Amino acid sequence: MNEASLVGLVNNTALLLAIALLFDLVAGRWKIGQTGLKQIPVGIFIGAVGIALMLTPWEFVPGIIFDTRSILLSISGLFFGLIPTLIAMAMTAAFRIYQGGAATLTGVGVILATGTIGLLWRHRGKIQLLNLSWSQLYLFGLINHVVMLLLMFLLPMQTALQVLRQITLPVILIYPIGTMLLGILMVNHLKREQNNLLLKENEERLRLAVKGARIGFFSRDMKTDQVVLSPEWKTQIGYTDNEIKNDKAEWEKRIHPEDKEKTLQQIEQFYDQRQTGYEMEYRLLHKNGSYIWVLERGFFETNEKGEVTKLLGCNIDITNQKIIEESILSSERRFRSLAESSLDYIMLYDKDNRHVYMNPAALKVSGLTSEEVIGKSHIEAGYDPELSEQWEKDIQKVFLSGEDSQWLFTWESAEGSMDLDWRLSPVFDANGEVELVLGISRDITEIKKTEDALRKSEAKFRQIFETAGIGISLANLKGEFLSGNPAVLTMLGYTLDEYKQLSVKDITYPDDLEKNLAIYEAYLSGSQKSFTIEKRNFKKNGEIVWGQLTSTVVLDGNGKPLFTIGMFEDITKRKQDQMALKHLLATADQSRLALLSVVEDQKFTQDALTKLTKELMVAYDSTLKGWSNALELRERETAGHSKRVVNLTLELAKRLNIPSDHLIHVERGALLHDIGKMGIPDSILSKPGPLTEEEWVVMRLHPTYAYRLLSEIEYLKPALDIPYSHHERWDGSGYPQGLSGENIPLAARIFSVIDVWDALSSDRPYRPAWENREIINYLKTQSGKQFDPQVVEEFLKLIES
Q: Which of 175, 226, 580, 737 has the lowest tally of Cβ within 10 angstroms?
């Protein structure tokens, strides 16, 4: 090694680095990672640099030169890739051949070898060029130039050895370092390229974000009032960049009239107070004539003297946010209005079990004010500790599970004991997390009372159903029996299972079937809801039983028929009695006709005819008195009841000017006033204590039975007023027709007073007789309600006399 070779190689390397550094400083648009056709100019440039280096070589001897093209081409292969390197290799190889000399083959070999090593190194393990270290680049340079030295053996052996003795050490010392320095220059260039690319991407993202977020920027020189409005600022209100000048007036004139004064004053106030920044909301006029809401944020820029020189800021379109806010406020107002007017008890709880809200109904029932409960837990508000603990456990359960909860409990409120149905529901925030718990309590005290009453009523009905003396059946709308009580099963001779296999058609006497089936047709059509008919049924043994059927259809909540309840009372004996009575009366009537015929035939005198008629009427009335006495015995009335009421009724009728020829009908009606009770079962008629509601329903049918019995007998039709109407009331609340006032026959009005007087003045198994003064007071209080006032007044005169 000599000094000349060392200096020559150093100068040559320095030239390469100088060219690369100069290009790096000047060529700001140069990109190492060019692709496609853009790689060709890069390759030509690298080749040109290589030729330039070869024009200024260090010459060992004529024909053997060193010019750092090995550094250039290896770095090209490593950083620029295949196409640029191949172009550069071709250009420099061609030029080296053109130069000629003893080392031409060696020179071309070095060109091909170092460029190829660079390409292979580039693709070795997908090396990351940005992460190449100086040690890796130094090793890369060392390998390249060891290969270059080995290629010296392409020269004649003696020449190769001579060259290697002179240049090995300088090459090994200088060229790897030159390769390392050039590589570091390339890595730094790559990093700058990467940073520039990231910067541009971030700028583009920011631009798109600003555009997407509809953020408009502005600046204002506080000395000159010069304003700059960004294109996005103008786009916010519907204009292009060229449609609005950069002028303060363009902004001011578009501020909503209601916001303008306040907005300008706020900015001046911020400026005067030397605040660094501000934030405010106002409305700007859009090109389409509407107004948009903007959130303006700004800050003041100052110089080194602390003077405000510029206002910089941005406008954010918050119109949609304002619409959402208004919607939320509107929804909150609606909720609050509903909550405030609700009769239910509505509460909101936070995660610490504290009351956030309690509606007026809840405050009233708790006996607390809003100040005493809001922001406090149940215990802090003074509620029962045991209940409070349970309530707060339920609230926390909803917070943790996000699911509804329900609890029924009894609470001693400020208004007394009540049963509550307490329901808790989660209120979620925008992230789906439980933010609050909504509690709604409903007073179900009356519902529970109703349920209890229904249960008791059902049990009572079941007891009546099982123990009633009247036969009761349940049937579907086809007339198929669903159940029957013991009374109807005993009456007809069936077991329950047998009875449930039958229908109305199976047990009804053929002549009565049509009117029975008509009931179900009326139920289905909705024209009737209840019926009472007399009919015959077959027993299991084939015998016929007469009965009075009272049938009612049961409807659901929508008025749709569900099933029927039928009460079948055995009236076989009553029917037999009726037929016997009719036969007796018919026989008497026939006797009368026969006597009249005899009179006609034998030309009786008028006196004889009168005598016979009186005798016949006496026979009639004796028969009626006999029936009256029989009824009195059956009903176990006090002795002489019929006689007393008949006498008093006739006396009062005379005082009230009923014609004398009508008194006989009044007498007969009074005698037969309870003839309808022949149809009432003994179990009800002879009951020692007060009747139940169900028994009263049956008992109140006796005026209707009386009408059916007597209206078929021509002789007794005029006497119907008392048996049929003596339970009507002056105010219209009586039965069976609900007549009122003077629509009630006078005879019935008279008898109703007499009947009550005699009933109250007589002992009963369930009460002693009343004192006369007590009865008189009762009649006076019921005057105008139960009784005709005129009849009561006249009766009291009669009693006093």
A: 580
